[in-house]
Amino acid sequence: EAVREITDRALACARDGELRGSLELLRAETEACMGHHAEASRYALQAMEDLPEATPPWLAAAGEASMASARIGEHDRVIEVIERFDEIDMGLSGGGVELMGIIRAAIPLASTGFGGTALELLDSVERVLQAIAERNPDARGPYHSARALRGVCTGELATTLFELEAASREFESAGSLRTAWEHKASAGYMCLELGMLQRGEALLMEVI
Fold first, then answer.
1. What angle do CA 189, 193, 195 make, to 5 degrees?
2. What pLDDT is stored for residue 206 in this prediction?
3. Model confidence pLDDT, tens digit, residues 104-144
4. What is the rounded distance in angstroms from the CA atom of residue 184 to the CA atom of residue 161?
């Protein structure tokens, strides 16, 4: 609540532009943490309008907008973000980790029957990450994460397992240990579900 009050006061004074966009992104992240996904979507979409396009903050706002919109069933909003995403200049973007929010938006899309939209989203993300990875290896973790979710959406569980482990290795190499452990734990639980008990227990023990 304190962050909401502070951002309300700051937004009342801020003009259009990067500062206002940063405040709107902070507000979107706050609303998302509180479970207010409609408000999170609204502020994130506003942030996308005010932040410089294709910069790390803009990509973070796109992720928040995609995730929040997917969670409240506003799939047309997700498609709008994808369309904006396909038009951006990749020479301006960061290291790829900023795209994790967009990648994770595929989960609520697929789980509510919009698998086609989820795959369309992942297609866009993978194209962007391939371009970034040519000059920045930190994009390899998010790329494999997107590939893992594609496997979930298409039912290719062996591919999902392979990509989760690959993502874990790449995130660890980039120094993103928490994200690496999340992917390794997901791989471990998937092994258990597939009956690969020894491998699953080994992966989970590495995380613990």
1. 115
2. 93
3. 888 888 888 888 888 988 988 888 888 888 888 888 999 99
4. 9
- Copy the structure tokens of residue 165: 């482990």
Tokens of 97: 């980790």
pLDDT tens digits, one per residue of 83-96: 887 777 655 556 67
**CA–CA distance, 189 with 96 (Å, rounded to integer):** 26
> Does residue 27 contact residue 43 with C-beta atoms inside 8 Å?
yes
The CB-side HSE value for 194 (13 A sphere, CA atoms) comes to: 18
Label residues 63-97 b or e (16+ Cβ within 10 Å = b).
Answer: bbbbbbbbbeebbebbbbbbebbeebeeeebbbbb
Q: How far apart are CA 141 and CA 137, in angstroms?
A: 8
Residue 26 CA to its chain's centroid (Å): 16
What pTM, to 2 d.p., does this model score? 0.78
Rounded to whole angstroms, how far apart are CA atoms 29 and 153?
Answer: 26
